[in-house]
């Protein structure tokens, strides 16, 4: 069986620990030859890297493992590059969330003003990183899930129009499918979804039983109205994620046709959300106090002990597992189904061809083959055309360094939706993002 070389960009991320353990657990199905962690922050990188040395020494000694801040060392010889950078780090995520909320608008990692602010930062760093990767690994598959994936995907499509080995992915649709499996009491892999939308803005039209072909969506709707909706791994979730999944019940009461992505709540209830989020303690604060602390504490404990001890088990990490399954599909030409972000080109018949949409695709060595969903209803189309316009205008603002295009994106966005508010928040975010955004004129 062929073995592969993988680099993780954003090696100091809070998600890397889960990947390192998952590469050990999944070594039979996706065997690694070499694993490299790359980050621009040496301090974060070193802590996770030292943990990795101990983990692999005990559990995967034949693996060649390197952590570095040097691009050549990181990318040369790689088959896959997993991209999970956070431009500006969690402190800037906190600003993306706090600043809009302080003005009465939704503050969120990928949606609304915060999402667009993060988008402009991310596009700057992602375009540079992909150029670096292509210098040293021209044929590597680039699997991007750095957020906001919708805006990053649009910008990469424009900057690298002929590069067919860049794939943008999000785990949230699969997380929703996994959550349905909890409700139904079945294995999530027996569920065969039909899905359409943009990243973090979509709907499931059907969820079929893969064995019988029965559409389980009516049953799922009944179960949600009786029991509410919980993430598959509810016991491990912070309170804000339980609230987020809880909103699916409300969304389904108001718009019962399809099962929504959890992120739809920000677009459909912007005022309610803005008034129910705490402007002084947002998800970024919860992550810094929770996941970030847990991950770095665990690494430091293992480094101090010089051994893994009880810090490794067989409990799978859904996020890492999904991204590794995507690489596996490409590596072994599996042509199995994944929900991916791809150029539309008729997949959603009544949307523009050059929109980056999220749909079910078959995935193999030659890349994704999107499955058509036909025409979507006017309501969903109207919402998506509005949002895809925001995402395209943010990409325009980056490429043209245009204040006007950014202002138009902010004005159109459903979480702002007003020219005067748009200018006020855009100006505040320009100030907060000095040196990290292109210079908008
Ligand atoms: N699409 C998805 O489904 C999905 C799921 C989970 C996480 N994510 C994304 O993964 C990323 C990491 O999230 P996190 O919460 O662990 O953040 P984090 O801040 O803990 O980690 C990000 C790491 O990226 C590094 N970094 C920043 N800019 C970089 C650059 N230019 N080059 C290389 N490294 C750089 C930082 O130093 C940091 O160590 C975010 O973009 C997040 O949105 C996406
Ligand atoms: O608020 P965060 O940082 O916990 O999560 C934000 C991300 O949420 C989605 O991803 C998963 C995440 O990967 C998983 O580990 C767990 O935390 O649940 C999240 C939701 O299912 C989303 O798809 C990402 O784009 C966000 O960055
Ligand atoms: Mn996502």
UniProtKB/TrEMBL annotation:
Domain spans labelled Glycosyl hydrolase family 4 C-terminal: 195-415
Ligand binding (Mn(2+)): 170, 200
Record keywords: Cobalt, Glycosidase, Hydrolase, Iron, Manganese, Metal-binding, NAD, Nickel
Biological process (GO), any one: carbohydrate metabolic process
Top-level lineage group: Bacteria
Stated family: Belongs to the glycosyl hydrolase 4 family.
Name the UniProt record assigns to this protein: Maltose-6'-phosphate glucosidase
Species this protein is from: Breznakia blatticola
Lineage: Bacteria, Bacillati, Bacillota, Erysipelotrichia, Erysipelotrichales
């Amino acid at each position: 069986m062929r073995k592969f070389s993988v680099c993780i960009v954003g090696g100091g991320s809070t998600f890397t620990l889960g990947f390192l353990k998952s590469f050990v657990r999944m070594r039979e199905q996706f065997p690694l030859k070499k694993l490299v962690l790359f980050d621009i922050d040496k301090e974060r990188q070193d802590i996770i890297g030292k943990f990795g040395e101990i983990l692999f020494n005990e559990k995967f000694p034949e693996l060649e493992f390197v952590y570095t801040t040097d691009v050549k060392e990181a990318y040369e010889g790689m088959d896959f590059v997993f991209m999970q950078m956070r431009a500006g780090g969690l402190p800037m995520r906190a600003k993306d969330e706090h600043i809009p909320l302080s003005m009465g608008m939704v503050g969120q990692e990928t949606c609304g003003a915060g999402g667009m602010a993060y988008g402009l930062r991310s596009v700057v760093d992602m375009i540079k990183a992909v150029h670096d990767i292509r210098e040293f690994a021209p044929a590597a598959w680039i699997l991007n899930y750095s957020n906001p994936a919708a805006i990053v995907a649009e910008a990469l499509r424009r900057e690298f129009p002929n590069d067919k080995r860049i794939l943008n992915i999000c785990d949230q649709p699969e997380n929703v499918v996994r959550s349905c499996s909890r409700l139904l009491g079945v294995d999530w892999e027996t569920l065969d979804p039909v899905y359409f939308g943009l990243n973090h803005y979509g709907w499931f039209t059907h969820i079929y039983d893969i064995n019988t072909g029965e559409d389980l969506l009516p049953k799922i709707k009944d179960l949600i109205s009786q029991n509410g909706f919980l993430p598959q791994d509810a016991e491990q979730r912070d309170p804000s994620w339980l609230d987020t999944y809880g909103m699916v019940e409300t969304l389904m009461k108001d718009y019962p046709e399809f099962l929504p992505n959890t992120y739809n709540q920000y677009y459909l209830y912007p005022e309610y959300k803005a008034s129910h989020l705490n402007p002084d303690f947002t998800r970024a604060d919860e992550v810094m106090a929770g996941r970030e602390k847990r991950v770095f504490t665990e690494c430091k404990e293992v480094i101090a002990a010089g051994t893994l001890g009880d810090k490794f088990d067989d409990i799978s990490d859904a996020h890492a597992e999904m991204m590794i399954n995507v690489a596996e599909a490409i590596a072994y030409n599996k042509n199995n189904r994944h929900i991916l972000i791809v150029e539309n080109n008729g997949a959603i018949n009544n949307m523009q061809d050059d929109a980056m949409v999220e749909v079910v695709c078959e995935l193999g060595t030659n890349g994704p083959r999107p499955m058509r969903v036909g025409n979507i209803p006017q309501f969903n189309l109207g919402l998506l055309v509005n949002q895809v316009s925001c995402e395209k205008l943010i990409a325009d603002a980056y490429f043209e360094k245009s204040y006007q295009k950014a202002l138009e994106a902010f004005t159109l966005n459903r979480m702002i939706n007003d020219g005067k508010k748009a200018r006020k928040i855009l100006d505040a975010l320009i100030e907060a993002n000095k040196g990290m955004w292109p210079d908008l004129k």
